[in-house]
From TrEMBL:
Coiled coil: none annotated. GO terms for cellular component: cytoplasm. It comes from Dactylosporangium siamense. This is alcohol dehydrogenase. SUPFAM superfamilies: GroES-like, NAD(P)-binding Rossmann-fold domains.
Length: 349
């Protein structure tokens, strides 16, 4: 595979194995950085559920590609005008926005008209190191980059750029949570992160999940009550749907008290429609908001939350084994076998 070359795991499509490819040396890449570009050496990447959906063929992705969008790394070199310096430990956003289009100027950078997504783009001559399953990444201008404290464990920091930042955006769409009754449906990584954030904000949090182990996990992240889908409460102020279940969406809407807010973020694939009673929506002064991706400020909030609370909540326990980059096939298999845990790839191995 070569000595000090940069390596990445190339994915060519459903049913085809990952291939480890070696390209230029980091020093060679550094000399070719354009203005605003940043070269990062990746310390650790984690495998997100959306990566598994892609590999299984449930999510369309252009190929060949470098998957992975949850990672933490250290800046190696920068192009002119970059906002970070060599040596900085950082995480970065899934989205790359142009900053100039009508959506970006309206504060909808996560839906930029020229949006690119880290870990979701085809390999091109202009952007090969575009995913986290690699020893290095090149971050184009328009990528949000946030510094990470040295004492924040890599297994805690890596998911910040997906799960934690998404939850920060979800809760930003709700009213202030202190003293509120909050229902969260789905107790995967998003759900337990939302539980911890809401509990830390002073909410009384009920978590619903059909899996007893996941419910128990949510209890370790600050849930006041744990229920099954048949035990959903009523009269809640905020309902947060993170499972993607159509029944859970309906349950969240039914659970709201007068003036309640439902924030939906789990449904990212086509599914059955959910009935909506417009009279109840009107008379109940209800608000329903959808959230997808996140804005730059949410990544900064995610890192700040993890830095301030990772000792209180067991985020490190949510990541299982560490695999080397050459063992990525085994890592993906393990991730599919244990969906309650993220599996880690130490890209330097």
């Amino acid at each position: 595979m070569g000595g000090d070359g940069v390596r990445y795991a190339r994915w060519d499509g459903v049913g085809r194995p990952f291939r480890i490819v070696t390209t230029d040396r980091p020093a060679d890449l550094a000399t070719d950085l354009a203005a605003g570009e940043v070269l990062v050496e990746i310390e650790l990447a984690t495998i997100c559920g959306s990566d598994l959906h892609t590999v299984a063929g449930h999510r369309p992705t252009p190929t060949p590609t470098v998957l992975g969008h949850e990672q933490v790394g250290r800046v190696v070199a920068t192009g002119a005008g970059a906002s970070v310096c060599p040596g900085d430990r950082v995480v970065w956003s899934v989205t790359v926005a142009c900053g100039d289009c009508a959506r970006c100027t309206r504060g909808l950078e996560q839906k930029c008209l020229r949006l690119r997504k880290f870990g979701h783009e085809p390999i091109t001559a202009g952007w090969t190191l575009s995913g986290g399953f690699a020893t290095h990444a090149v971050l184009p201008p328009g990528t949000t980059i946030v510094s990470v404290p040295e004492d924040l464990p890599d297994v805690v920091a890596a998911p910040a750029s997906c799960a934690t930042a998404t939850v920060a955006a979800v809760l930003d769409a709700a009213p202030a949570l202190a003293g509120r009754r909050v229902l969260i449906t789905g107790a995967g990584l998003l759900g337990v992160t939302a539980t911890a954030m809401a509990a830390a904000a002073g909410a009384e949090v009920t978590v619903c999940d059909p899996d007893p182990a996941r419910r128990l996990q949510a209890g370790r992240f600050g849930a006041s009550a744990l229920v099954t889908p048949d035990e959903l409460p009523t009269g809640v102020d905020v309902a947060v749907e993170l499972s993607g279940s159509t029944a859970a969406v309906a349950g969240c809407l039914a659970a709201l008290d007068v003036g309640g807010h439902a924030v939906l973020a789990g449904t990212v694939s086509p599914g059955p429609a959910v009935a909506l009673d417009p009279e109840r929506l009107v008379r109940g002064l209800l608000t329903v908001t959808g959230v997808h991706n996140y804005r730059p400020l949410h990544l900064a909030r995610a890192v700040a939350f993890l830095a301030g609370h990772h000792h209180r909540f067991p985020f490190a326990d949510l990541v299982g084994e560490r695999f080397g980059l050459t063992d990525i096939e085994h890592a993906v298999t393990a991730a599919g076998r244990t969906p309650a845990l993220r599996q880690a790839i130490d890209t330097r191995r």
